[in-house]
Amino acid sequence: MLTETRTRRIVLSSNPSHPIDLNIPSTDHRIFARPWSSSLILSTLLPSILQTTASYPPKSLELGSGLGLVSLVASTLATQALATDVAPESLALISASASLNSSTSTCEIAKLNWEDADSEILSREFDFVFAADVLYMQRAVRYIAKTLGKVVRRDTVAVLVDPDRCYVEEFLEAVEELGGLEVCVVRGDVDASRLYRCEGGEDEIKEFTAAKRFNVLIVCSIGKDICELQKTIAKLFGQGSGNDSLYSS
Strand locations in the chain, DSSP E? Predict the structure, then answer.
């Protein structure tokens, strides 16, 4: 059941012409109800990531969408975005936020359980799969890897942003065990509080932007050329040098 929410306008430095009005729970502290810094970073990277495909409009799937910021931003960039989560409350929040933003009309919302290997969603074709801070539980890591194994095909690229959690290595091992996929990791130091401007009231987001070291994991089929995408993310991400000047608004 949804608790009281507040609407905050999020203006990203990389996409200032399309601010997102986001419904944020006032008192709900469950994982999906928080605006984590990884979603801000991934949302900031989206304009550059989406430019690396020739598909138009590109199709994206987001795993563990939470408040849905990544998919909502993607939909403002002419993307057919599908936001998914297992929590009904999360899907309700995303739907409410989408109704506030006329530019997010292409954002589809659906329930997806990572343990459901037979979900119809995983049979669809996507250009990109996005996930922000989903490697927070050890028992979920292998399910996420298996989900990617189902949905990442020859022309699909998955991009995950992770706040340097302890299960990244286990995730890499799980992907390797699947076979057919490879992972490129770009690491960097980013001050996520400099990625955005919050309008409409108190900035509740800032308290969730404490993490500074992040990993961007690019998952694709073995042999797929992702050099340009890797270079783009590495450049924007400061190549692990601690240079976060790109994210200054």
Answer: 5-12, 20-25, 59-63, 80-85, 108-111, 128-132, 157-162, 181-189, 196-199, 213-221
Q: Which residues pair with 181 in a beta bridge?
A: 221
Q: Is the peptide bond before 57 cis (omega within 30 degrees of 0)?
A: yes
| C-alpha to C-alpha distance for 232 and 211, rounded to whole angstroms | 22
pLDDT tens digits, 8-19 = 999 999 999 999
Q: Which of 88, 160, 146 is nearest to 117 (CA)?
A: 146
- What is the 8-class DSSP label of residue 68? -
Residue 69: pLDDT band by 50, 70, 90 thresholds? very high
Mean pLDDT, the chain, integer: 88
The SS3 call for residue 71 is helix
What tens digit of pLDDT does each residue of 162-190 get? Answer: 999 999 999 999 999 999 999 999 988 88
How far apart are alpha carbons 220 and 84 in whole angstroms?
20
CB 81 within 8 A of CB 106: yes
pLDDT mean over 59-82: 95
CB 238 within 8 A of CB 194: no
* In contact, 117 and 146? CB cutoff 8 Å: yes
Residue 40 has which token pair? 């801000």
Is residue 40 very low, low, confident or very high in pLDDT (cuts 50, 70, 90)? Answer: very high
Query: Cα–Cα distance between 35 and 182 in angstroms, integer?
Result: 29
Alpha-carbon gap, residue 69 to 249, rounded angstroms = 18
